[in-house]
Write a structure and sequence with these properties.
The protein has 7 helices and no strands. With 209 residues, it is an all-alpha fold. The chain is globular and about 45 Å long.
Length: 209
């Protein structure tokens, strides 16, 4: 009976801590014939829709990963033994929960913004599902690694996850045409960059001396 809540949260977590690459396509320019304003407008509208679609794929990835990272402490808290590891995990999970909530709120303020896009082709999804199962087995709350080995691997995966989110948010900030959304993403990128430095420092101090 108790396995189902853990399994549900684990599905969100795996999306957050696994290193998931998102290819942001580049848009090709549209040739416009001088004087044909209607065709130019049509081309610009199509380009705008494509750009928003790519941005929404990025926002969806950011939201999914932030939602997953916000659950890390809930699933694995029992196996975290060190105060400094607990602190950095709590810092990351608290912020990711706030960011996920903020992104949901933004969809009400900006109707063109979407955070529920399916971004993975079936073959990629199947491969990542297999990786999730292996990862969750190693991180299982009752079995799997524990103690120093558990904390080291958890920090390594968190390091990769926050690094990914840093660059995702930074890319969204750079490409987002809406100034308010761009600023929010720039702030998120800065926070994730700070987490990267915090985790990297802890890893070096605790495990790589």
């Amino acid at each position: 009976m108790n396995e189902h809540p853990i399994s549900d949260r684990a599905r969100y977590l795996a999306r957050g801590i696994l290193l998931v690459a998102l290819s942001m396509g580049t848009l090709s320019g549209c040739a416009v014939v001088s004087g044909q304003n209607d065709k130019a407008q049509t081309a610009n509208d199509a380009e705008s829709r494509t750009t928003r679609g790519e941005l929404n794929a990025g926002y969806s990835d950011l939201y999914s990963s932030a939602s997953g990272l916000s659950e890390v402490d809930k699933i694995f808290y029992v196996k975290v033994e060190s105060d400094d590891v607990e602190k950095v995990v709590t810092d990351v999970t608290d912020y990711c929960g706030q960011l996920a909530t903020r992104l949901k709120e933004l969809t009400a303020d900006y109707p063109a913004l979407a955070i529920n896009r399916e971004i993975d082709p079936p073959i990629i999804k199947a491969a990542r599902d297999a990786q999730k199962k292996a990862t969750l087995k190693r991180f299982a709350p009752v079995v799997g690694d524990s103690g120093t080995a558990f904390e080291r691997e958890l920090l390594i995966r968190l390091l990769g996850a926050v690094d990914q989110q840093h660059y995702m948010a930074a890319t969204l900030a750079e490409r987002e045409p809406n100034p308010a959304l761009s600023k929010i993403m720039a702030n998120a990128a800065d926070r994730f960059a700070g987490f990267y430095d915090e985790i990297d420092t802890l890893l070096k101090a605790r495990f790589y001396r």
